[in-house]
Specification:
mainly alpha
């Protein structure tokens, strides 16, 4: 992990922050599709858990 957020990560955080509290869910912060989290770039596993 290099400690920097990608543009898409910033976008998800901004959208989450703009969503009213009663409509927020943590899943909003997860990437859609095949995109990976920046923490996962270094090969770390377990950042996403299937429920």
């Amino acid at each position: 992990m290099n400690g920097r957020l990608t543009e898409s990560e910033w976008q998800r955080i901004a959208e989450f922050a703009e969503t009213p509290k009663h409509q927020r869910c943590p899943e909003q912060l997860l990437p859609e599709g095949g995109e990976t989290l920046s923490e996962n770039r270094d090969g770390a596993e377990g950042a996403r858990r299937d429920r």
